[in-house]
Amino acid sequence: MKEVVIGFLGCGNVGGGVWELLHGFAPEIAHRDHVAIRVKKVLVRSLDKARSCSVAPEVLTTNPADILEDPEITLVAEFMGGEQPATDYLLAALRQGKTVVTANKVAVALNWHRLQEEAQRHHAGLYYEASVCGAIPIISTLMSPLQANRIGQLMGIINGTTNYILSRMYEHGEDYSAVLADAQRLGLAEPDPANDVEGMDAAYKLSIMASLAFHARVPYSKVYREGITHVTAMDIAMGKEMGYVLKLLAIAKREGNTIEVRVHPTFIRERHPLAQVNGSFNAVYLFGHACKEMMLQGRGAGDMPTASAVVGDILHAATVDAHVHPSFANTADADASLTFTDDWHSSFFIRLSASDTPGVLAEIAGGLAKENVSIATMMQKGAVESGRVPLIFITHAASEKAMQKALSRLNPEVARLESVIRVEE
Question: Which residues of the chain fall below pLDDT 50?
Answer without folding.
Answer: none
